[in-house]
């Protein structure tokens, strides 16, 4: 167990240093997986982790919503909400399409949801279904957004001030 | 010293509110209740009290590493083969979402309501990278950050619905 945790820390820190999107989470998963695969025996995940991790992720996310954040939201709130709802609906549409063609991973709606990587992976862990697939879908999404970011900048309407 | 102890007390109180609400929601059988309940509990306690807590980076990093470790500990050789088969649907899903973000930008522009940095604001994810780009090029980083914060909060709020519509 200690070797697995040490590998997770090393993998996470290395991936962050390499500036991989979602690096800390993805790198630590790869580090822990490497040790698990090398040992050829699957370690039991302590039951307390299945409760403590979702709660920790959820609480830290909740702390982002402060009064100051709410004040700053007001000016663009409507458009931001419309945009968020539309992209979430699109994610649900993608989930339905993947199910229809038989390509859906377990917990498909968590996998195709547009964001909140740690919360969705934490939820997959909580419901004990498809956490690896969910993490992989989100990692691919993040990497593609980063790879395509020069295109996004080129599509910005307003010229550099 | 006293100020630090006071801030630590507030932090622990908000953590307690999040954990308590998460446990209640989990026990009530709400899908994704542990996470969803703790988000609601911590946010509600923060908004009611007005306390603004800066989460220590080491703690946020530790939680992410624990999430990653927990995923890694479930990996077997069979799952590696399984993940290889998921690359195509994962890429297709990501490209559709990115195209969807661009479509939302197009609609916002057509309706005259697009913020500066609209393409960065409506992109589905990688908020640190996109906000950094907005800062670097002076494209309304604040508005870009707001769009991403709202998206993340809406995704979190939608978790019970996602699990209801597509039960795992």
Automatic annotation (TrEMBL), chain B:
Keywords: Membrane, Transmembrane, Transmembrane helix. This is AbrB family transcriptional regulator. PANTHER family: REGULATOR ABRB-RELATED (PTHR38457). InterPro entries: AbrB_dup (IPR017516), AbrB_fam (IPR007820). The chain crosses the membrane at residues 30-51, 58-75, 87-108, 145-166. It comes from the Bacteria. The keyword Membrane applies. It holds the Pfam family AbrB. NCBIfam families: Gneg_AbrB_dup.
